[in-house]
């Protein structure tokens, strides 16, 4: 017995000596998947189905030149952590911050056969209603360079059209629509062609607070749709599909202003517009319409791929690494400046929670509502922040100065006074009853105190590694005639979790963040015609199937990489041998995550990756290695955030027709 004790003491001494020299190999378990201290990028060979319906190969202006089409498609994608990368000067791939997902795209290009085309174009009139030539089609009819007149119009139910394509392409074309599938559709040229638009009028998702339904308005008559989830309350498919369609023989429409042909210049903007398909071959419009194949490749690349199927997060989805939250609380603070009505009537906390629970089912979401006093001091801060922001919108180089306190070098922040006041008083708003609280400040104001935006999700003004606050402004008119706050807060909180708009996104091969706000990419607004609350079309309160896929893929990579980051610290602990079995178990979960991911079972992948991460975290706790959530940095600097985080009201960014509002918002029936 004495000898044994001596031997074990000696062994402990050896372990100590080894540890003290920093050589820990002897205690390092060999993992299959986890890579202590290293960054893993999960690469996926992603099949993307491109189904051409009514387009055929040939040399005519409305035919497909497949070589030209393929030349416009990207080969590869990497998901960028856009927030922190935007603080790093230059546009250098090696300096940027990457999430850990990459894709090699494999395109399965399928030309629909006659039977499929006949069936689809015979079906869509049966799911349509006559809805009249829209004011946008009428405006198109005034363009001197047009090829024809739009003489009538039917509205096709967009959800049912999506469902038909998703259901019939597998049996009729051999296309697996549970994989990312874009349908590029052209009805024009067939004897049964009808002028048409798509509208989700059959399953409208109305504003949760006011009942307002955008689906009955001409602005919502579009040319594309998709992204419906299996379990959507309005129109769920019942099974998993990943479908988005784009029909250039529909419209023309409000959303991408493709009713304009003679000019595409507005107040200094020169927009890139994809006209209705019948204009291809027209060389006398604002630009020659002579590259249909190139334009359809742009739709596939910049919209279907960059904005929908495989996109990058606008804010870091990790939220607070290295210790990331289980419980998330939306901490809504209400300032009632207009005493004639009550903000509580325009927020449905349960809906905010239930939609976000479907985006991140591996977190638990809750909400708290707190009334704050809007006193003279608040009014002063509000007035400062509001007037400064209005001037910034007019002139992006306008130096923002704080009139709250004596702020010196903390000037020049977006929404200076809103940010500084709430940061300084953060402890009054944060309650400490969740792992992570999302501070939301909502103002109920009379019309004369409104801001020229609905809401914004701001970052930390330090390095973009996390979000800071959400602000929301509801005016008296808005709450009376259209919107409450619920839909807008689901959207802004979506930004906080990482989601970007369906009309903007990072393009990897261009190494640029692009979107409908950039004139040459104006056509990207068509991504908003999808069943996502991250759209500006006000047609959905939920996250789309693509939103879910993207979030689940981000989180799979993030959980594995945060585990990788923590591992060297705990493995260099003298007590590391106590947790070897937990680490092996974590490694096994990480391996399961990658298997699910490869099978496109992205939710399972994220759940397994979180389990791996949680086990690594628990192992750290067990041997007293402390892992902390990221704290808010103390210093701030000038940073004009991506305009994608500022949410202007509907129509704000579109060229306006010389029509009265009530005219272009005329209900379709
Ligand atoms: Zn937004």
How are the SSEs ordered, and which strands pair?
Blueprint: H1 2-20, E1 42-53, H2 66-71, E2 76-80, H3 82-85, E3 98-111, H4 114-123, E4 128-130, H5 135-140, E5 154-157, H6 158-173, E6 181-185, E7 196-199, E8 224-226, E9 243-247, E10 265-266, E11 269-270, H7 292-309, E12 327-336, H8 349-359, E13 364-372, H9 376-394, H10 416-424, H11 426-429, E14 436-445, E15 455-459, E16 467-475, H12 476-481, H13 486-497, E17 504-507, E18 512-515, H14 545-571, H15 580-598, H16 602-622, E19 646-647, H17 661-664
The structure holds zinc ion.
Question: How would you characterize this protein structure?
Answer:
This protein is an alpha/beta fold and 669 residues long. Among the domains are: 44-309, no CATH class; 327-490, no CATH class. It contains 17 helices and 19 strands. It has helices at 2-20, 66-71, 82-85, 114-123, 135-140, 158-173, 292-309, 349-359, 376-394, 416-424, 426-429, 476-481, 486-497, 545-571, 580-598, 602-622, 661-664, and strands at residues 42-53, 76-80, 98-111, 128-130, 154-157, 181-185, 196-199, 224-226, 243-247, 265-266, 269-270, 327-336, 364-372, 436-445, 455-459, 467-475, 504-507, 512-515, 646-647. Strands 2-3-1-6-9-8 form a six-stranded mixed β-sheet, sandwiched between helices. The chain has a six-stranded mixed β-sheet with strand order 13-12-14-16-15-19. Strand 10 (265-266) and strand 11 (269-270) form a beta hairpin. Helix 8 packs parallel to helix 13 (486-497), helix 14 packs parallel to helix 16 (602-622) and helix 15 (580-598) packs antiparallel against helix 16. The longest helix is centred in the last third of the chain and has 27 residues, at 545-571. The termini are far apart. Mean pLDDT is 88; it is low at 1-26, 634-639 and 659-669. It binds zinc ion. Zinc ion binds at residues 491, 495, 501, 647. Zinc ion is lined by residues 491, 495, 501, 647.
């Amino acid at each position: 017995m004495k000898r044994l004790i001596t031997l074990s003491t000696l062994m402990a001494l050896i372990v100590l000596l080894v540890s003290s020299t920093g050589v820990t190999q002897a205690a390092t378990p060999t993992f299959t998947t986890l890579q202590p201290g290293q960054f893993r990028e999960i690469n996926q060979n992603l099949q993307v189905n491109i189904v051409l319906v009514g387009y055929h190969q040939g040399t005519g202006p409305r035919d497909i030149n497949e070589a030209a089409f393929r030349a416009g498609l990207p080969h590869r994608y990497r998901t960028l952590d856009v927030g922190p990368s935007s603080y790093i000067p230059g546009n250098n791939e090696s300096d940027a911050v990457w999430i850990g997902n990459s894709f090699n795209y494999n395109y399965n290009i399928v030309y629909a056969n006659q039977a499929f085309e006949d069936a689809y174009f015979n079906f869509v009139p049966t799911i349509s209603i006559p809805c009249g030539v829209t004011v946008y089609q009428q405006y198109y009819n005034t363009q001197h360079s047009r090829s024809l007149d739009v003489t009538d119009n039917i509205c096709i139910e967009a959800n049912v059209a999506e469902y038909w394509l998703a259901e019939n392409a597998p049996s009729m074309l051999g296309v697996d629509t549970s994989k990312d599938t874009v349908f590029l559709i052209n009805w024009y040229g067939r004897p049964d062609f009808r002028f048409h638009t798509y509208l989700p009028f059959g399953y409208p998702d109305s504003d949760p607070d006011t009942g307002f339904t955008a689906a009955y308005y001409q602005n919502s008559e579009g040319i594309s749709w998709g992204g419906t989830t299996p379990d959507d309350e309005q129109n769920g498919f019942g099974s998993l599909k990943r479908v988005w369609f784009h029909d250039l023989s529909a419209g023309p429409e409000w959303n991408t202003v493709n009713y304009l042909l003679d000019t595409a210049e507005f107040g200094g903007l020169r927009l890139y517009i994809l006209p209705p398909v019948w204009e291809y071959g027209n060389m006398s419009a604002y630009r020659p319409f002579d590259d249909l194949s190139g334009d359809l490749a742009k739709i596939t690349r910049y919209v279907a791929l960059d904005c929908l199927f495989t996109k990058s997060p606008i804010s870091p989805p990790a939220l607070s690494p290295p210790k990331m939250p289980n419980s998330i609380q939306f901490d809504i603070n209400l300032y009632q400046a207009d005493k004639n009505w009550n903000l509580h009537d325009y927020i449905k906390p349960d809906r905010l929670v239930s939609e976000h629970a479907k985006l991140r089912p591996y977190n638990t979401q809750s909400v708290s509502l707190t009334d704050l006093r809007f006193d003279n001091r608040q009014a002063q801060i509000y007035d400062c922040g509001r007037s400064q922001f209005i001037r910034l919108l007019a002139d992006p180089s306008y130096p923002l100065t704080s009139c709250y306190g004596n702020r010196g070098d903390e000037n020049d922040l977006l929404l200076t006074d809103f940010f500084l006041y709430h940061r300084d008083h953060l402890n009054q708003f944060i309650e400490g009853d969740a792992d992570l609280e999302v501070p939301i400040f909502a103002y109920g104001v009379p019309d004369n105190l409104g801001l020229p935006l609905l809401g914004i999700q701001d970052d930390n003004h330090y390095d973009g590694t996390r979000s800071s606050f959400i602000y929301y402004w509801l005016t008296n008119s808005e709450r009376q005639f259209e919107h409450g706050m619920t839909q807008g807060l689901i959207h802004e909180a979506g930004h906080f979790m990482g989601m970007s708009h369906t009309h903007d996104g990072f393009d990897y091969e261009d190494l640029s963040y692009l979107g409908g706000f950039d004139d040459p990419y104006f056509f990207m607004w068509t991504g908003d015609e999808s069943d996502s609350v991250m759209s500006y079309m006000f047609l959905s309160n939920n996250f789309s199937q693509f939103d879910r896929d993207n979030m689940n893929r981000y989180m799979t990579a993030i959980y594995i990489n945060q585990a990788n980051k923590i591992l060297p610290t705990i493995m260099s602990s003298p007590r590391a041998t106590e947790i070897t079995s937990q680490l092996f178990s974590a490694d096994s979960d990480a391996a399961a995550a990658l298997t699910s991911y490869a099978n496109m079972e992205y939710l399972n992948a994220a759940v397994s990756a979180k389990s791996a991460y949680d086990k690594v975290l628990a192992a750290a706790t067990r041997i007293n290695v402390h892992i902390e959530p990221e704290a808010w940095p103390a210093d701030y600097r000038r940073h004009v955030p991506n305009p994608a985080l500022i949410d202007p009201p509907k129509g704000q960014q579109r060229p306006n027709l010389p029509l009265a509002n009530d005219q272009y918002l005329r209900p379709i029936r």
